[in-house]
């Protein structure tokens, strides 16, 4: 019953026993429940951490129940705060998209020229990308989702990337961390960096996109199926929002090839912390896997390891405990290195 508040079934059993007989000590509770004293002490430690019991001032080492009307309501309030914080994280994650929508609405209302070109099918997308790359003169910013890239995708990108870099175009790309498990993509990124492209990696990315000269951007028309087609966006408002999103993620992403570090406070890798953040937002293992470019099996393994590390019995409880420990605050990876 109290598991929704983060109270384990063992701690709840001890709590209810103390409600009926508050005078019982550790040995008395152990006898009544048929447990060992060690089990009872473990449950009492949990109740004390949740502020459901406190130390007795009259009996050294003794514990007293905190008035349930105060303690349980306070515990529920903390859960509500955590839920609010997670909702705020989801809201802030959608901020860039909201800005794009707002700019689009403003442009229509002000009768400005709306320049959104729909590109249907992968062939049309690649032709348009070749044209935009040919006309690009100064800078490219790119998010590449999906983890390891297919041979067809690498073959299509190689001559375009080479021509851009040989012309002196400043090129920055962010790939998913999971590419390190795909040797062919790793080789391709090594080749890119040797030509002068600056590559960084992130545990997850919001969408696939390419921005040309901060004036035009290509984004998928359906982020869940990039093969369907794409949208070519122009205009300072629309593209500026995407550029701001890129700079935000670029700032926190470590360079490709850098040693992956664990967070000093949590001991988590950036990948594990990203999984935790996505779980806290309510995503399924399938969605987590797609966003991070990993297999569903890997996503489930990382989730299980996180639940074990947190001592959680459910995904919801894992999110609550992580929130209590401050593991959901800040960026996914604070180990960004200036490049």
Automatic annotation (TrEMBL):
GO terms for biological process: regulation of DNA-templated transcription. This is Erythropoiesis-stimulating protein. One of its GO terms (molecular function) is DNA binding. InterPro entries: Sig_transdc_resp-reg_C-effctor (IPR016032), TrmB-like (IPR051797), Tscrpt_reg_LuxR_C (IPR000792), WH-like_DNA-bd_sf (IPR036388). The lineage of its organism: Bacteria, Bacillati, Actinomycetota, Actinomycetes, Kitasatosporales. It comes from the Bacteria. Pfam families: GerE (PF00196). It comes from Streptomyces sparsogenes DSM 40356. Residues 261-326 form the HTH luxR-type domain.
């Amino acid at each position: 019953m109290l598991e929704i508040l983060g109270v384990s079934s063992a701690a709840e059993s001890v709590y209810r026993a103390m409600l009926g007989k508050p005078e019982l000590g550790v040995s008395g509770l152990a006898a009544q429940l048929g447990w060992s004293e060690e089990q009872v002490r473990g449950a009492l430690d949990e109740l004390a951490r949740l502020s459901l019991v406190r130390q007795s001032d009259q009996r050294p080492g003794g514990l007293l129940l905190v008035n349930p009307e105060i303690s349980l309501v306070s515990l529920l309030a903390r859960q509500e705060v955590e839920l609010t914080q997670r909702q705020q994280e989801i809201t802030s994650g959608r901020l860039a998209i909201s800005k794009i929508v707002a700019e689009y609405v403003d442009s229509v209302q002000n009768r400005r020229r709306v320049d959104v070109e729909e590109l249907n099918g992968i062939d049309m997308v690649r032709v348009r990308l070749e044209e935009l790359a040919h006309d690009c003169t100064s800078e490219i910013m790119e998010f590449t989702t999906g983890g390891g890239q297919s041979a067809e995708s690498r073959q299509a990108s190689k001559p375009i990337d080479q021509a851009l870099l040989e012309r002196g175009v400043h090129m920055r790309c962010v790939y998913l961390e999971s590419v390190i498990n795909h040797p062919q993509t790793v080789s391709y990124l090594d080749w890119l960096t040797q030509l002068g492209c600056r590559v960084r990696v992130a545990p997850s990315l919001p969408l696939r996109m390419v921005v040309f000269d901060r004036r035009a951007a290509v984004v998928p028309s359906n982020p869940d199926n990039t093969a369907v087609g794409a949208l070519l966006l122009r205009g300072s408002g629309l593209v500026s929002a995407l550029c701001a999103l890129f700079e935000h993620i670029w700032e926190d992403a470590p360079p490709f090839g850098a040693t992956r570090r664990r967070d000093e406070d949590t001991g988590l890798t950036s990948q594990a912390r990203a999984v935790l953040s996505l779980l806290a937002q309510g995503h399924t293992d399938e969605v987590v896997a797609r966003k991070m470019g990993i297999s569903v099996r890997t996503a489930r393994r990382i989730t299980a390891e996180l639940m074990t590390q947190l001592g959680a019995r459910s995904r919801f409880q894992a999110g609550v405990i992580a929130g209590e420990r401050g593991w959901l605050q800040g960026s996914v990876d604070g180990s960004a290195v200036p490049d």
